[in-house]
Design a protein that fits this description.
353 residues, alpha/beta, Quinone Oxidoreductase, Chain A, domain 1, Rossmann fold, 7-stranded mixed sheet, 6-stranded parallel sheet, 17 strands, 28% helix, GroES-like_sf
Amino acid sequence: MRWIISEKTIRRIKNMKVLCIEKPGSLELKEFPKPKAVPGQAVVKIEMCGICGSDVTAYRGVNPTMKYPINGLGHEGVGIIEEIGENDKGLKPGDRVALEPYVPCNHCHMCKEERFNNCADIRVCGVHKDGMMAEYFLHPVQLLYKLPDDLSFKHAALVEPFTIGLHAATRARVKAGEKVVIFGAGVIGLMASFACINYGAEPILVDVIQERLDYAKEHGVPHIFNSKEGGIEEYLKEVTQGKLPEAMIDCTGAPVILEQMHNYVCYGGRIALVGWPHNPVSINTVRLMQKEIDVCPSRNSNKKFPEAIELIHDDKIPTDAMITKMVKLEEVEATIQDMIKAPSEYLKVIVEI
C-alpha cells in the first residue's frame, strides 16, 4: 500500500505555528521549523498555555522586563513530551508535564546556592527568550515536571501562577495563625491568598474591583476590603484587634501602596513585593527602620512546582472557577485587547494550542 501525503500535510509535520510578539501591540502567528531534541533538552507538544498579566503588559508595552521581539509569547505551558533523551528524572515520550519557564545559567553564585529564580543571567520564557504559545517547544529537562494522569491540562495550566503565590508566601515567611494583608485581587493576589490559606494563615485581600473580592470571599478568603473609598488602615486594625497584620504581600506594584506599606504591617512585620512597578518608587525608609520591617522582593518562584502540582491535584484551590475563558492561538490578540478594556471581567484565560 502506498501512502499519498499532500505538500501541505508534509509542511505541517515539519513546521509549527508560533504566536510572536514583534513589538508592543503587535502579535503575529508565524510558522517555524519544528525543534529537535538535543542533550539535556526535550521537545514538548504544548497543549495549553495560560495568558499572564505580564503577557498583557508586554502587549501594552509597559512590562519593564520584556525584550522584543520574542518568538512566542507565554510562559504558563503544559503539554506532552514528544522527544527526549536519557535523563535522570525518569521522563519519557508521552509523559504529561508542566514546564517551569525560568531558565537559569546553572553557574552563577545564586544557582550554586540553588536560588535558581535569582540567577544573575536568568531567562524567562516569553520575556527574555522564546515563549510557549507554540505548537512545539524545546525546553531543559531539568525544568519539566510530570503531571498526575488525572490532572487535566486546563487545571495544570494554573500550576505556574500558583507557584508565584506560594513563593511570595514563603518570602513573607507566612506562618499558621497569622494575618496577611494582600494587595491586588488578580490571579496572583488570589493565588497568594490560597497559598496563605494552605499554610494556615488568614489572608486579608484588598482591591478596588468588588467582583474580584466577592469571588475571593465565595471561594474561602476570610477577609476582603474594597479600598476605593479609603479606610484601609482602620480596617486592618479592626481585623487584627489593633495590632496590624504580621505580613503583607503586594501584587500590584502600585506606588500609592508601596509608599504607604509601612502602615499596613505591625512592628517587626514582613513584606513581600511581587508586583512590578512601571517606574522606581520612593519608600519611607525611616518608618521601615523604626518598625524594623523586613522588605523582601519576590521574583518568579523557586522549587515550588512539585508543591503546586500536588495542591492543585488535591483540589486545594478553586481551579474551575478561576478559568474565565478558553481560546485558540488565533484568538489571543483579540482576547488580550478585551482584557485591557475590561480587566474586571477576566481572571485566567487558557490558550488551547
